[in-house]
Amino acid sequence: MDILIIVGVVVVLAFVFMMVALLMLKAFYFKVEQGKALIINGVSKIAVRFDGGFVWPIINKKELMRISLITLEVDRRGKEGLIARIICVRTLLLHFICESMKPKKTC
Fold first, then answer.
1. pTM for this structure?
2. Which of 11, 69, 74, 87 lies 20 to 30 Å (CA to CA) from residue 33?
């Protein structure tokens, strides 16, 4: 009878330990939505993940970076126009398109 109690306690403790380990793994995994990248700063290296990854507290630091196409427009017209040295107002309209490229995989 004592053996059954000891075996039961060991099984329950093993089950509790496994559940705590799975919950910890779930808590430390971060998913990344499309158009963003997860940058994991470690002790000796930096990892960039596009789908998700494990971030261990104290050891790693996580940052999210937008990698989708970004359009920036600068519009200076009329009274807000660019004033040149010869004291005349210039109209300026600029469009910038910024895109982050994924690194190529090497074998």
1. 0.55
2. 74
